[in-house]
Design brief:
Shape: globular
Order of helices and strands: HHHHH
Structural class: mainly alpha
Mean pLDDT: 81
Helix content: 40-55%
Length: about 110
Amino acid sequence: MNEIAIDDSQREMCAVLVMRTMLTDYCDDTGVSFNDVFFHFVTSPAYKMLFDYSTGLWMEGPDYLRNIFEDTMKTNTSLKQTEPYLISEEEMLRRLGITEADLVGFEDVEIE
């Protein structure tokens, strides 16, 4: 049987899709804002696991990822890990599929 090679850009695309779907579902179910959940997720061990392609988490569905995320929240009630895994704003926007054109008009918005 022929095995199809999957490169890291394809793995990343799958990981981002699973992440976005999980976060959207989580927000819909809990009423928590997307920004709050996104911040908690990207600072969680689940995020690091998702983008460590050797774990295979990128191949799983959003419900499975949510279970992993919620499990890490239970064991780490402060929602902070000892070794932060933060990404730049540019990387966050790229992974979420937000382009410069999407941000037109937001230059003067102040974030508290």
